Protein 1
Amino acid sequence: MYKTIFFDLDGTLTDSGEGILKSLEYAFREMGEEVPPLEKLRMFIGPPLVTSFHEYMNFDDEKTELAIKKYRERYVVKGIFENAPYEGIIELLEELKNKGCRLAVATTKPEHMARTVTDHYDMTKYFETVSGAVGEGDTKADVIMKACERMNIPENEIKDVLMVGDRKYDIIGAHECNMKCVGVDYGFAPEGEFREYGADYTVHTVEDLKNFLLR
């Protein structure tokens, strides 16, 4: 049983799809751009926005900056609350905490926004830290290492920490930090992504995740 567990936020702890997708649609319309199909918009959930606009839309830096600005016009007011913990997540966090596990959030969502979400759903109390991005260039590995530093986890013990996430960025970041990652495919990963990027474990439901973490 892993005693220190880091969780991604969007697509892992909370189903944030509605707010993110509607805010993306708003951003594209405000910019006079054609709104991409839903399958493409769903790819934006998980990675940093700057990465998504570059990778999926081929926007240059200036256009990406504008797109993020427009996205946040709606997201910070409304979209952030079009969101909810997955069924069973709160109970899982409480059980892990009661068993003495050390828990953290490690997300590339801006840290103040991540904290707004965990506060809103009364989840912050389960975590030693909510580690998020403080700059547009922060990677998953950056926020993972920041969480390790805040929790005073020695370098030689990082390998004993487990990352839980729903996208390739969680797997890549975890492996860059020498830790293992369990992929939750109830989130937003496209089919085959966990296999392609070498998730160490995969679970299909929150109940499966509970059984894995408490085994």
Note: The mean pLDDT is 96.
Protein 2
Amino acid sequence: MIKKNKKIFVKDLGKASYKPTWDYQEKVLKEITNIKSIGEETTPNYFFYVEHPPVYTLGKSGEIKHLLLSEEKLRSKNIEFHKTNRGGDITFHGPGQVVGYPILDLENFYTDIHKYLRMLEEVIILTLKEYGLKGERSPKETGVWLDANTPFPRKICALGVRTSRWVTMHGFAFNVNTDLTYFDNIIPCGIVGKSVTSLKAELKKDISMEEVKEKINKHFQTLFEAEFVQL
């Protein structure tokens, strides 16, 4: 029986465009699935951080009508748009947002996609708690919210993943110092009548992105019983 590997290589890709980062994820995922096809080696796990320039991405189950800008308007605002192979609907990535792409072989942890999504949410919920905010789940809506069960729900973290042979890619987008006006051009996650927020908007001050990543790292390692190794 192949030994489970709970070490996760962590790399901060800095500021990088969406499509090259997506291609990089696909490459790493394929390398891991190739190892699995041989069946003789322990598989590696990765976690990439990145900060994208402004981009809207549409998931497999999303509807293009949830993008409220024409191609011409997108170009004039210098915003990219990509249809992706992740789950979920439309969302925004951009400056001031902590985006995390875990590429994990879930057979090193547990083969349960539902549990995996709930664990990603819990990482963010525990991180928010350190800032005095109560992150919550909203029934049938993946992601992390504030005041989820009130008349004023606000989404602070979006999630969307893809798996192949139990290897994950894509991940979460956590609004830290994000310019929230970008969300005015979409119906975020296809959900009508609910707003988005950020740490900055809630706490009325800029928040250190590196500090947020450190907190995410801590909670991720605890919840996944993993060890992070910096690349």
Note: Residues 7-230 form a domain with the BirA Bifunctional Protein; domain 2 fold (CATH 3.30.930.10).
Protein 3
Amino acid sequence: MSNSVKPKKHLGQHFLKDIGIAQKVARLFIDEVGDDQVLEIGPGMGVLTQFLMEDYPSVHAIEIDRESVAYLKESLVKQGLILTEGDFLRMDVNELAKGKQLFVVGNFPYNISSQIVFKVLEAVPSVKGFGGMFQKEVAERLVAKKGSKTYGILSVFLNAYYDCTYEFTIEPHVFNPPPKVKSGVIRCLRKEGFVLPCDKKLFFEVVKAGFNQRRKTLRNALHKFNLKDTHEFAKLRAEQLSVEDFIKLTQFIQNEQ
């Protein structure tokens, strides 16, 4: 059974084979889902999926690999799994939600994990929870707070909308094939009142500009916004600002335009 689908390097597939870890990841949102839907990205052969189906009333999986799709149709689809073949990155997440709240989980392919995060951020009103397995370095970056060396653009964007925690580390040998690095599991739950109190597009521009030149002070990194030397954040670097600080800075720039 474990050899039924061959992992494909170009898809970044590393199939989880540790049942205990699959159960732990499946239960990340056990107290929050209720009647909402779990959306799994890249189920592969369904090692995680089978436990999601045990714990939650509605599980929808998105899979791009035709061989995995065929495998799942012969196994978990017959047990009630909703399966869609296609590329998650090309889908409308709000449309997938169909009016329900989604909890997006998965053993996310390393090569597109950041793109998956951005996809979730496009649909925050529909995604109440988000979590699963990432390359450890990426997982740490996603939950990082100000002052950390790993704190960056995605840290700010994700934590603007979600309360995120690093849950645990996974060793390479529990995957087939084993990746060259460790993995990390994160859990993100959408904040109450998740609407940004500033222009979202401008917020993203300010954060990106700040971190794209992270060694410079914000006065220099944000030169196109004409940030004056007298501003309270002018002499700081991007990594020294919290999410709330970036929101405050964006509001200031927005009011000045």
Note: Residues 37 and 66 are 24 Å apart (CA to CA).
Protein 4
Amino acid sequence: MSTLPQPAGPGSLRRPDGQPVRILVVDDEATLTELLSMALRLEGWEVHTAGDGFSAIRTGRNVQPDAVVLDVMLPDMDGLEVLRRLRAAAPDVPVLFLTAKDAVEDRIAGLTAGGDDYVTKPFSLEEVVARLRGLLRRTNVLARAESTTLAVGDLTLDEDSHEVRRGGRVIALTATEYELLRFLMRNPRRVLSKAQILDRVWNYDFGGQANVVELYISYLRKKIDAGRSPMIHTLRGAGYVLKPAE
């Protein structure tokens, strides 16, 4: 199954020909696959999916993805075998493994087989996106002039250095605060619900309460909006929106 390319937002990674980056997501958990696809489409990327190994090999040969997100445990064959077959046709395609196994030997096996990186379930969608961006930048498929800086009004965020500034002043953020702000800045003027924020910034199967979002929004406001015109706004019953100060 494949999705149509979506319009890329500011700072999106692109191929040298200007086309969206192509990602193949391989996982037999339909809900997780859909969540990952939505997250990657928000990056402006073209997403193709497969629910088993044979479909993954066929789709990979047809669409020639720029990177692959690959579950180690598939219903018809081992993810390591899928990797070997994909690499037979595309030796340099970067692969990010998804695994529910957290034993050191399983991780080593995946990387020894040729995987470039891995994340262990449960994970945050932002972590997967960040790992993929890192893998893509280390390949030669990207346009050389892509920007790594997001800007909304006088607020800037550098996705390489993780440096955040407002009005030229550096703002120190924790890792979670940074991921939350990055998600808001990649969707300026768009109302984001607590559920969307939980899915993107925290684990995809996060079992906590939505008040963790309220808590971290309050942390961000103290650092981003303190003594300045507010940029982070609450729409009761709908969610949160970040927009340039008026």
Note: The domain at 22-137 is CATH 3.40.50.2300 (Rossmann fold).
